[in-house]
Amino acid sequence: MLIKEYRVINNCTRDEYQVAQLYAVAEASKAETSGGEGVEVIKNEPYDNGRGQYTYKIYHFSSKVPTLIRALAPSGALDLYEEAWNAYPHCKTVLTNGYMKENFKLVTESMHIDNSRGEVENALNISQDLLEKRQVVIIDIANDSIDKKDYREDQDPTLFHSEKTGRGPLKGDWIKTVTPVMTCYKLVTVEFKWFGLQTKIEAFIQDFHRQVFSWTDKWFGMTMEDIRALEDKTKLDLEESLSKPIEVTEVEASEPVVVRA
Known about the structure:
Layout: E1 2-10, H1 14-32, E2 38-47, E3 52-60, H2 67-72, E4 80-87, E5 90-96, E6 105-114, H3 128-133, E7 135-139, H4 174-177, E8 182-190, H5 197-214, H6 216-219, H7 224-243
Parallel strand pairs: 1-7
Antiparallel strand pairs: 1-8, 2-3, 3-4, 4-5, 5-6, 6-8
Helix pairs in contact: 1-5, 1-7
Organism: Cetraspora pellucida
Pfam families: IP_trans
Protein name: 1256_t:CDS:1
């Protein structure tokens, strides 16, 4: 079992980040969905008398895995199922696969803390046993290296300057000096021996938060009502995109599996 706690420092307030992450998730879902593949939103509804938002999604990405695996796996076996309970500032997401059942489970539990620079040692109040097994990783969206194929100049925090807020570019030891500031503490537990999965998780977290910062002028000023309206429209757009056929091309066996969650 892999237990990692990722600490992602962001140049925004905790309330702003709630809007920013939901905006980025909606935009990423649209970008990943077309021609029968992508994100299918089954449920997006309040729970616990409105104290949180529950979502259930299915990720259809069969053409993005090696041809050999597609040939061996039963129909639908490559779909991933995501349940999420968002009672911000605390959130929990569980990712499973119906074919592998108990042999694959990825759980992400997050706590978002205002005016924090990654210094809180037990933000998620986990047991002493888990603390001893946990590995802490600080994600620096400006200074951490990024794969050349994933680099986009318009999503580079060291170049981006927000016209609406005056924030950025993020330079040097920005984590210690920037304001406003908050930290996402993400405890990731993986029950599956997947070579390279840890690297993929870290790359995704970094990539996602580079987008969150670089899209500041797109989400800044939006309300939660605006976000819910965007999610409703996105759900309809995704359903339309999933219904359109696509010509599936062969994927080389050496090509890595990429999970967007």
